[in-house]
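Format is chain and fold; as here:
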Amino acid sequence: MKKLSIIIFLTTALTATLPARSDSMATQPHSPREKLLQEYPIIQNDSIEQGKDYLFENALLYLQKGDTQKAYQSLHTCLQLDSTQAEVWFRLAPIYQMRKNKDSVQICLENAHRYDEHNKSYMLNLASFYSRDEKLTQAAQLLEKLVNDYPDEYEYYYAISALYGEASLPNEAIRILKQLEAIVGKNQDISLDVYNYYRRLGKEKKAIKEMEQLRKSDPDNLMYLMLLAYAYEEYKVEKAIKLYRQAMEDESEQSSDAAFLLADFLRRLERKQEAEELYQSLFSSHKGSFNHKMDALQKYYLKEHAQDSALIQSAFENILSQYPHQAQAHSLYAAWLKEHHQVMEAAIHYRQAIDLNPMELQNWTQYVNLFIESQNFGMIKDVCSEARAYFPQEFIFPYYIAVTNSIENNLPATIQAYQACLDILHSQAQAAQLSRVLGEMGDVYHRMNKMDSCYIYYNDALIFDANNAMVLNNYAYFLSEENRDLEQAEKMARQAVKLEANNATYLDT
């Protein structure tokens, strides 16, 4: 009785939200049903099904037109005729979602499932709602019902186990994975998940046994051998090393994976000499993947051997001799060379990285920064001009050209480059950068003795950023030099000092 009363309450709560309709007839219907029959003449006592279909089709048409209010009214009218229509409840849910009424969304989805409990779409949508609402156990239990109806859809088993795991119910997660294993047999995905859940439970022996059983299921599978070695790492160190070395003896390319895993394991054991010899062998060997070598180089070698430049340089050169067309290797080597003040060599490798992959913006910016630091103005302009062809919406390249031209006192070319910056920044609505560029253009016009243009650009700069301290200071200074608008000049000078109180130049102004 309690459950029934709750359902009645929820249905009443929903239908009570229907907007009231005015009726000009003197005689009002005495019941909702009579009102419905009066408002929708097509609905007669002997054609309720026809009336429900009519209302539901109307609701779908309203939804197609985007009129959710009328769709809402039609769907609720359907429920007044028959509150067990699953699809009506289901169609109401997204309307409540749009209204951010989470409780009503849940009621609608639960009723849709209640009245059509084997509908896959209803189950998945309700499970998704529960998951988003952090009702993880309810979501998992609902998906368990789903796999009973659709036992061949294995991906749901993984989803259920993940939900139980997230809900801190690892035993339930293991139970589901073992159900799946009984259907599909042993595989590494299932065994690894079970292994990790046993470890969360502190059942280390069961965790290791899981990996041993995986290995026994396919003794020739090299990956299973490496997974068992991984499982032994904390408990049977020498046995783990033995299994890794056994995997390394395999003739397949995959054996190098075992070598990298062993090298990392030895490093964590503080057996640095053994790890070092293995890494050097791997870097010089043509076996092993590029990604593995780069990963080891970045995560371990560059940190552990930061003081041994010769060793790192040798590792880079070995990798580049094997993979000369990998832009990532050239880029990483260039960054290391730059950090170690080998600027010319860094430029060579940034250039090679760019030639191999011209769409990597960071390589262009790092490459041009080398020439900025060395004040090679010709190369700055050449590189930035080339980069603009690949990145026409990056304002930094015409900006560098403008600054370089300004240093070289080529003022017309400076204005032209700044104008290219403005075209880009206007399209991107970047107010702070616009203010900066406009202010610098004002400075250039001052150098050209075109003060009217200078002040126009300063004014524009302050429109985009009223707190541009540099513009405020320069504007005030130039006005005071001309002995004009001194009150305005003083006001701007004070504002500049207020913005940057420790700036001696602004204090002087």
